[in-house]
Amino acid sequence: MVFVNSLFVAEGPTEDPELGLPTFPLTLNDRSGSDVIWRMSGELLGCEATCSGHIIPGTQEQVWCQTMEQETLGRGWGGDDPNYPTGLNRAPTFSGYGWNREVAGRLRKPTLVMQGLEDTVVPTGPATGRAIYDALYQALPPAAMPNKVLVQVQCASHALLWEGCAGARCTPPPETPETTPYGDPPWGRAAPWAGPHATFKAALIEWITGDRPTFNGNENGSFIVGESGVARAAS
Fold this sequence. Notes:
Blueprint: E1 2-4, E2 26-29, H1 31-35, H2 59-70, E3 89-92, H3 101-104, E4 111-116, H4 130-139, E5 148-153, H5 196-209, E6 220-225, E7 231-233
Parallel strand pairs: 1-4, 4-5, 5-6
Antiparallel strand pairs: 2-3, 6-7
């Protein structure tokens, strides 16, 4: 199993949906609502201020175009205002209730948990502190889990699987003990780091194709992937 930027309410109720979250059945999303998943703390929508190159040019446009290709009705909704162009994406609304510590404690499958440390969409963003990042990983039963790994990626937002890297930060400094970013198969590549999307892809391939699920050769543990793509054990 793999959970990426999961909406996890550790102490939430199992059956009672009273979490103050939406109960209406349909969400309408425009292009700006699509782009917001790339936003990092302190950034204006559409502006890159935190991690150079995390928005790969053309990616947001491509994601929205492909979303509209799948939209059968909402693509024709909207007006002529250039600030609100035609085209809305319809999506079912969900509250996330029931995905909590009790339920996670019942899992018995090898589980990889990945989280962008600059995620501002789900309630696991920087303002909540690191404890919330670890909550799902810690809730998995240690004695019963054959493999469980937590991977927290710096300079990665809710759009972790589409994000890149540009500039000097993508090359690990010479004094770094390990200078090979965790990226494209076979799990290491020469610098510069291609970005969170490369780490995400490599982690999935390694987790699924090995004789036993591993991350960077480790069957269990908590790891941080730094802004240069180098993976290290979390303290």
